[in-house]
Amino acid sequence: MGSLSILLIVVSVAVLSAGGLVFVSYSAEIERARTAVISGGRILTTTSGPIEYAENGSGIPLLSIHGAGGGFDQGLANAVELVGAGFRVIAPSRFGYLGTPIPADASPSAQADAHAALLVALKVDWAVVVGISAGARSALQLALRHPDRVAALVLMVPGTYAPEGPVAIEASRGSRFAFWLVNAGADFAWWATEKIAPSVLIRFIGVPPEVVAAAPKTEQDRVMQIVSSVQPLSVRFPGINIDSKPALHRLPLEKIMVPTLVISARDDLFNTLPAAEFAAGGIPNAKLVVFGTGGHLLVGRGREVRAIVGEFLAGASVK
């Protein structure tokens, strides 16, 4: 056997070994993610159909409505970042996410009715309602359709209606590629992109990569944890597809009478600032907070956001 043949064999073995290690690593991570979403929630039959949800803590009820790419798990995680102890966090999976099926009507108004039905089924009379990103759409509708169920409303980087500057996925080539992954429900491709080109996914979830690069290590880790939390993508992409094609329209915001806080950032790549300004301008006495930087995840603003939310809830007499 010649030296070239031996070299080819060695290279082939090395490539196969590397591929095997990649497959083992991916399989272990995706299995952990699947186990977590299967075991972490429960299904409750309501007047709006089956709804998956999870709970954590005790005290003042807080309905945590996740954004695109989420589920009950992200709803719980979002609440931990925003409030401390003293809250009973109720985190549903919205239509098409994890264990909640897609009904014939998957509109934000129908989703709001489902939120109210969940609270009724849990014998919860009212709750602080936190709507993040695309979750702000049904949060607004809940305050309009079931005002007695909402003690206070917090809209974080809201993916809601604005007459100018509509919310949209950032249009770079990388974001188009990431959206293709979502449409394909490609768990492995998302995982591989996370390992090889994380900045593509960071931009796709609405954060300028340079903001993350300049942030402390703890914030960088938080961002990557959120990127990873989209897995398994295959059980979230039906909901993501609903969120990505919203039929948004002007709502009678002037009818919302509950205390309301709206937060956004100027460099949010989903362009939620116009929607935040429009919502805060239309809801009587709403408070608007705008950060100069931080992107869609408000990177580096965690301590400030938590203090603002705490002060707001205290002033709203719910804490």
List the helices and strands and how they pair.
Blueprint: H1 3-40, E1 42-46, E2 49-56, E3 60-65, H2 72-82, E4 87-92, H3 108-121, E5 127-132, H4 135-145, E6 150-156, H5 173-184, H6 187-196, H7 198-204, H8 209-213, H9 217-228, H10 237-243, E7 260-265, H11 273-282, E8 287-291, H12 302-315
Parallel strand pairs: 3-4, 3-5, 5-6, 6-7, 7-8
Antiparallel strand pairs: 1-2, 2-4
Helix pairs in contact: 3-4, 5-7, 6-7
Task: For this entry, give a set of tags.
47% helix; 8-stranded mixed beta sheet; 319 residues; alpha/beta
Structural class: alpha/beta
Compute the number of strand runs.
8
Q: What order do the helices and strands follow?
A: HEEEHEHEHEHHHHHHEHEH
Percentage beta strand: 15-25%
Number of helices: 12
Give the strand order of the largest sheet, numbering strands 1, 2, ... along the chain.
1-2-4-3-5-6-7-8
Whole-number average pLDDT?
89
Helix content: 40-55%
Mass-distribution shape: globular
Largest sheet: 8 strands, mixed
